[in-house]
Design goal:
- The protein is of the alpha/beta class and about 750 residues long.
- About 45% of the residues lie in helices and about 15% in strands.
- It is built from 30 helices and 23 strands.
- The strands form 5 sheets. Strands 11, 12, 13, 14, 15, 16, 17 and 18 form an 8-stranded mixed β-sheet that branches.
- A hairpin with a 3-residue loop joins strand 19 (about 710-715) and strand 20.
- The chain is globular.
- Bound molecules: adenosine-5'-triphosphate and magnesium ion.
- The site of adenosine-5'-triphosphate has 18 residues, from helix 4.
- Magnesium ion binds near residues 58, 59, 245 and 586.
Length: about 750
């Protein structure tokens, strides 16, 4: 049979053919990169900075580069130093490298700054006066140690709380400052100059204990590098390649450590490749300095800079929304992001407007369930919150809907230490026989009743066959226990009695608040100056808030017991992930829920109080990080009111919602609920203070409130009614200006 058409060999070569051809000629792993990414992988020699937006493949480039160096026989595995931001990221990178190589590799210098330093320090411990088997102590130990030392310096623990001092020491360590390095300039910032002596004594004591704290891991290594050029030279010889992810979030000491390792004799440097995104710098509160990324070219002259602009993660709509928000920041290098596949715009960004935080949680759970029924997996859904306490109602809504979930980078709400403490207090009141609960809190806050005393009490109680509380009461009334400890324990048992009476008279919510207040437990956290303390207080307030959902304390405690039980049996891998926006850095999910976009929560009240733009811009970068975690769908939510304690506090939508380009957004407000919804009912436009958002409002009835009426609001203080539209009032507050507030939320002074 005759052959029709032109013979094969004169067929025109198309673009498609060329593409296939080059893919055939390049190794498989390089074929999966675009031109700029490929260049970044193949530019193995000399300093390299990859500056690129979210989802452009920075981490993929670093991983591929690692594998490429090995496959090209440019170095042995142990000659590459790779720094990641979290241990989780390190594990993932290791897996991906193994996947490219087709086998697993051991002995990699791949991990977080702290993990890498710990490994180095074990080898050179002697140079700092430590033994190689030194222990790394945790925060509790640090505080205990500091207190002992402070006592020796006659420092008032009230005026200078140990946790505050610890923070100060950590700040110094983050700046690579040893006690002797602290100059007058640093000193002037201190209220009490004895703190430097405490720092010095603390370091000395740690050495005596053959221990170091987290900050020391880096501090010791930088000190060793500075004073022992021979040691540094060993590492110079070893590490031919250095790779750093999330470079925008390195702090001073991390930066110094990297520079010491990378810079060589003369103007030489290691083959250092850093990747970062100035728009994702979200750790300045921990001393991270965005300047490090901007300084790269100066530090490493002749550096190659590569920009990646194609985003492979998110839909064009998600990208445009993220760009629309970050555009409002002034302090940025400015980058454009283009979606890789521009044909499908993708889903709209959904903005859910909800009456309150419980409804927000319920709606998220319902939405997740619906998406699951439509074929999405739970493992590809994440809920990213600004503050840890936000997870509580969401966790409960998920539990109620039987949706499996995990909390990443933190504990589930009821597993957190402060929540367990508070629950122990409640149990001890509810159930005086509950020795386990009582033991947990008998010396919390410190009442001078340590382990030895507790053991004695235990055996006494066991001998009499009575509960700890009963036994203690008898010992106290018979004056067999005396002194300061006795006084504070009498106070504690008194408080319990008092709270039981309050419970009968005023209900369990008021009683719980009274219990945590009078026992000194809340005060303990207020006095704590550590970074976590405000979050813990928020969690405790959230717990009290949760109590209001139950008719009695007993019902609440039973609920807790069941919740904890449900936790332990859940082995399912297909789970929704809950975490803070900070913890979500570098991760991606098909569907991302972003609840709590309200002024005062996100952006945080602290960033608003600070004034100026610095803190606010960091919040905006967080919003950018949050949105760019989503591949297919981003669902933002805000609630018109949140419950703090048992009272409602109204909140206005975040400015970040207003910054979203309108044409990308689909606003969804739930149908009106029946009046059984209570005080907060969704009768009117409860979006409150931004009329532009009030599109779902129904015509308002004429107002009952006269213009000029003086009012008082729990958060905004005194003001006067300017306009009234039904129950929706425009109020001019003395200190906060004009705001739309629902009549329910203010007290009328006339
Ligand atoms: P972030 O700033 O959030 O850390 P990133 O720049 O590190 O993001 P990656 O996580 O490396 O981005 O990549 C984002 C997603 O895009 C990943 O799922 C990755 O596998 C995919 N990806 C990256 N480059 C390509 C490419 N050339 N072709 C297809 N997919 C890619
Ligand atoms: Mg990344």
């Amino acid at each position: 049979m005759a052959i029709k058409g032109p013979p094969q060999y004169i067929r025109l070569v198309t673009d498609h053919d060329l593409h296939t051809l080059s893919a055939l000629l390049t190794p498989d792993y390089l074929a999966r990169l675009n031109a700029e990414q490929k260049q970044a992988v193949e530019t193995t020699e000399g300093p390299l900075l990859i500056l690129a937006g979210a989802g452009t493949g920075k981490t993929r480039v670093l991983t591929t580069r690692f594998a490429h160096i090995l496959l090209q026989n440019l170095a042995w595995p142990e000659q590459i130093l790779a720094v990641t931001f979290t241990n989780k990221a390190a594990r993932e990178m290791k897996e991906r490298i193994s996947a490219i190589l087709g086998h697993s590799v051991e002995g990699l210098w791949l991990g977080t700054f702290h993990a890498l330093c710990a490994r180095m320090l074990r080898r050179h411990a002697g140079l700092t006066g430590l033994e190689p088997n030194f222990t790394i102590i945790d925060t509790d130990d640090q505080i205990r140690l500091l207190k002992q030392i402070m006592a020796g310096y006659n420092l008032d623990l009230k005026r200078t709380p140990p946790a505050q001092l610890l923070n100060q020491i950590q700040n110094w360590k983050d700046k690579a400052l040893l006690p002797q390095d602290i100059t007058a300039a640093h000193e002037s910032a201190l209220e009490d100059k004895r703190t430097i002596s405490v720092y010095e004594a603390y370091q000395k004591r740690l050495l005596e204990l053959n221990a170091c704290d987290f900050g020391d891991l880096m501090l010791h290594m930088v000190t060793i590098f500075r004073h022992h050029p021979d040691v540094l030279a060993q590492y110079h010889k070893r590490f031919r390649y250095i790779l750093v992810d999330e470079y925008q979030d390195t702090n001073t000491i991390q930066y110094l450590w990297l520079r010491l390792l990378a810079k060589r004799e003369g103007n030489q440097s290691a083959n250092i490749a850093c990747v970062g995104d100035d728009d994702q710098s979200i750790y300045s509160w921990r001393g991270a300095d965005i300047g490090n990324i901007l300084r790269f070219e100066k530090d490493f002259p002749g550096a190659t800079i590569i920009r990646l602009e194609r985003n492979y993660r998110s839909t064009p709509r998600i990208l445009a929304a993220a760009a629309g928000i970050i555009r409002h920041n002034e302090e940025r290098l400015g980058k454009t992001l283009q979606a890789a596949d521009t044909e499908e715009p993708g889903d709209y960004i959904e903005v859910l407007s909800l009456p309150d935080s419980d409804e927000e949680a319920r709606t998220i759970a319902q939405r997740a369930q619906k998406l699951h029924q439509e074929g999405e997996t739970y493992a590809e859904m994440a809920v990213l919150v600004r503050a840890g306490f936000q997870t509580r109602p969401i966790e409960e809504a998920l539990l109620r809907a039987n949706i499996p979930y995990q909390v990443i980078g933190g504990l589930r709400f009821y597993e957190r230490a402060e929540i367990r403490d508070a629950i122990a207090y409640l149990r001890a009141v509810q159930q005086p026989q509950d020795d386990l609960a009582f033991e947990r809190i008998i010396n919390l806050p410190k009442r001078g009743f340590g382990t030895v005393a507790l053991n004695k009490l235990r055996s006494e109680a066991a001998g009499q066959g009575r509960s700890l509380q009963e036994t203690l009461k008898t010992l106290l009334t018979e004056k067999k226990l005396k002194g300061k400890a006795a006084d504070s324990l009498i106070d504690l048992l008194d408080t319990f009695d008092h709270v039981r009476v309050t419970m009968d008279k005023e209900g369990h919510v008021v009683a719980a608040e009274q219990l945590l207040e009078r026992s000194g437990y809340l005060q303990m956290w207020r006095d704590d100056r550590s970074v976590e303390a405000p979050g813990r207080l928020d969690n405790l307030h959230e717990l009290i808030r949760a109590l209001a959902d139950f008719p009695t304390l007993e019902a609440f405690l039973e609920h807790i017991a069941l919740v904890m039980e449900a936790d332990s049996v859940d082995q399912n891998k297909d789970r929704v992930s809950l975490m803070t926006l900070h913890a979500a850095k570098g991760l991606e999910f098909d569907i991302v829920f972003l609840p709590g976009w309200e002024e005062g929560l996100f952006p945080s009240q602290r960033s608003l109080d600070e004034g100026g733009n610095t803190a606010l811009e960091e919040e905006r970068r967080l919003a950018y990080v949050g949105l760019t975690r989503a591949r297919k769908k981003a669902i933002i939510a805000h609630a018109a009111s949140r419950r703090i304690y048992a009272t409602w506090q109204d909140s206005i939508p975040s400015r970040f919602i207003d910054e979203l380009p309108e044409d990308l957004v689909k606003r969804i407000a739930p149908a009106r609920r029946s009046s059984s919804f209570g005080k907060n009912s969704w009768q009117r436009d409860t979006f409150g203070q931004r009329p532009a958002l009030g599109k779902t409002a129904s015509p308002a009835p004429p107002s009952r409130f006269a213009i000029g009426t003086p009012v008082k609001h729990p958060r905004f203080g005194n003001g006067v009614v300017l306009e009234a539209d039904g129950d929706s009032l425009l109020i001019n507050f003395e200190n906060h200006g004009a705001k739309n507030i629902l009549a329910d939320f203010v007290e009328f002074l006339k």
